[in-house]
Every structure is written in structure tokens, then in C-alpha cells.
Amino acid sequence: QVLVVESVGGSVQPVGSLKLSCAASGSVFSIIEMAWFRQPPGKMRELVASIDTRGNTDYADSVKGRFTISADITKNALYLQMSSLKPEDTGVYYCKWTMLRVGPYDYWGEGTQVTVSS
């Protein structure tokens, strides 16, 4: 079993910054990839950023240049540094860890609310 837990999000004013963290515990091994998703109010869940075990990253166009994903595999930790936040960044942010089991298997956190508002 793997438990994935995101840090508490919060409320921030536009152009502000916020850093999210995510920890995986339990049977954490054979990591393939880690990612952050978000679900804006009334919309579908969308990929924000991903990182593989070699450090290769990928970002949604809407966050490029503003968000940075990073990971510390030795600590089973994932981070998302968010800067120049906009109201449209508001949503529930989810952390996902993909590990190799019989095949790739996704472990999700329960999500944390981020609100960007003046």
C-alpha cells in the first residue's frame, strides 16, 4: 500500500507565490513518474506538471515560466513552486505517483485547495 498526502494549500493574492509539497509513504518503489494535477471549479481535472526519475519535466502551457516541479526521491517527496499566481490557478491540486507494479499504477493524494483571489 502507498499513502500519498499533499500539504495544506491556502489562499493567496494574485501575483503571489505558494509552494505545495507531497509525500509518499508505504511501499514506495519502482517509481516511474510523479505529477501535479488540478481541478478548477466546475472543470475537469488537468495536468499541471510532471517529472520523471531522471528529472525530465513537462508543464501545461498555462503554467510554463511560473510553476516549477521538483522532487527528492530520497525523501519520497514532490514539490510544486507556484509564482505569479493568477485567479485562474484556483482549484484543488492533486499529487500523483506512478509506480511499476504488474503494470504502471497510479497513487493519488486526496487533494488540497488553492485559492487565488484579491
What's the structural blueprint in terms of helices and strands?
Layout: E1 2-6, E2 10-12, E3 18-26, E4 31-39, E5 46-52, E6 57-59, E7 67-72, E8 77-82, E9 91-100, E10 104-108, E11 112-116
Parallel strand pairs: 2-11
Antiparallel strand pairs: 1-3, 3-8, 4-5, 4-9, 5-6, 7-8, 9-10, 9-11
Describe the overall structure.
This protein is mostly beta strands. The protein has strands at residues 2-6, 10-12, 18-26, 31-39, 46-52, 57-59, 67-72, 77-82, 91-100, 104-108, 112-116. It has no helices and eleven strands. The strands form two sheets. Strands 2, 4, 5, 6, 9, 10 and 11 form a seven-stranded mixed β-sheet that branches. Strands 1-3-8-7 form a four-stranded antiparallel β-sheet, with no helix packed on it. It is globular.
Identify the notable features of this structure and list them briefly:
118 residues, 4-stranded antiparallel beta sheet, mainly beta
Short recap of the structure:
By secondary structure, the chain is mostly beta strands.
Give the CA-CA distance, first to last residue: 41 Å
What portion of residues is helical? under 10%
Percent of residues in beta strands = over 45%
Poorly predicted spans: none
Question: Secondary-structure element order, as H and E?
Answer: EEEEEEEEEEE
What's the total count of β strands?
11
The SS-based structural class is: mainly beta
Instruction: Tell the overall outline.
Output: globular
Work out the radius of gyration: 14 Å
| Average pLDDT reading | 97
Number of helices: 0
Report the major sheet.
7 strands, mixed
